[in-house]
Amino acid sequence: MKRLLIGLIGLIGLIGPISVAAQSQQPEKTRLLIILDCSNSMWDHWQSDSKIKVTQQVLLSFLDSAARQNNIDVALRVFGHLNKDSYATRLEVPFGDDNYYRIRSKIKTLVPQGGCTAATALTDALDDFPPTDDSRNIILIITDGMDDCDADICNVARYVQLSGVVVKTFILGIGNREDFHHSLDCAGKFTYVQNEERYATVLYDIFGLSDKRARVIVSLIDEDGALFETEVPMTFYDHHTGVARLSTLYAVGSNLVPDTLLLDPLINYDIVLHTHPPYRREQLQFAPEKVSHIDIKVGLGSVQVRLEGRKPSWPVPSYTLSVRPEGRSNTIKQQTVGERADYVAGRYDIEIQTMPPMLLRGVEVRASAATELNIPMPGLLTIAKPRTITTGALFCMTDGTATWVCDLNPNSALEKLVLQPGEYEIVLHPRQSTDYSHVLTRRFVIESGQTTKIQF
């Protein structure tokens, strides 16, 4: 035990006040909930004393250091200590200002005597954190794993993680390695503690992460290995909860070095680049002691659709086009004719909202290349309708097939439509007539940039 206390004093001196010197803003509040196993097996001998006695010594020394940290709040929940054969758990000391003395007093008086209820304690822990609080909430479970009664702790831990209340759950396993009958990795970051010295080190490692940040540099590189110099939006998601933790713009400074991001080292991240379509990297965790470099290779090419031909005197609509991966129905981006936009290299179907719509299938976009597409300038159709006409429709004729384009306005005697070049047919129906022989039809051709007049 003397070696343990000497080690603790050295660790406290090395760690000192925990802060992030590189950041000028006040670190956010961190709340650390300790869930302590006080089941009957904690009386078993381990190292220099019983498991509970060793744990009490380590935690008391730990709290002496933690009490000096202004941005750390600690609370204590215990299970297996209420009475013999009890599987109950209780929040013994809630979060609050200056509660370290109460936590120390409770730890000193703990007497193991009940059963193992780590899963229940973990479930109840969600209510231990103050509501409507923007602190970083961390759970630390200390258990000897002797009582194999937590068959559903994996499901409980997943529920806790998906709640969004807790950022990270740590589990410290003490005692004999063979006493852990099933893995606890599913419940959080599990660390097996081999001896007393390691016990203190792991505890302070977790504590040291409470207000540290990981420095991360994301570099986007093209097919030739060159660094992207254009801005690209990107979002960092919590992998477990799916909640967006940070949205920013990938940017390169004047020295051709991407910006350095400060991220929470406790979180497993998914990175989403908001390219078209989006690019995703999953389950990334960044250490706080070094700069993490993430290189992402993305091949981007551009697409531009332009109108070909002389612009007419009448106004031409601003056409919108929808871009979809080849053979897929989901639109990944919309742009206008004349606009240039970037896409990940691949093949796409492009639908242009002309009248009638145009569909360009299997357009290839190559990395670091510009794909330029030309479509013909539309023509103008003017229809002069007799007063006896109330309904009508316009069809596009292609290889003998009539494709409906639009219905005509029954309240307009003179109608103007901007159409793509091609062959068309108009069908008009007289007012109040039920005789199909009275239906009027007219075929005509629309030419690029020209006006076609139809008189009935």
Rough outline: elongated
The domain count comes to: 4
Please name the CATH architecture of the largest domain. Answer: 3-Layer(aba) Sandwich
**Computed Rg:** 35 Å
> Uncertain segments of ≥5 residues (pLDDT<50)?
1-25
Strand content: 35-45%
**The first-level CATH class name of the largest domain:** Alpha Beta
CATH topology name of the largest domain: Rossmann fold
- Tell how many strands the DSSP assignment holds: 29
Percent range for helical residues? 10-25%
Number of helical segments?
A: 6
The profile of the biggest β sheet is: 6 strands, mixed
Class per helix and strand makeup: alpha/beta
Distance between the termini: 106 Å
Global mean pLDDT: 85
Q: List the strand order in the largest sheet.
A: 5-4-1-6-7-8
Oligomeric category: single chain
CATH H-level superfamily of the largest domain: von Willebrand factor, type A domain
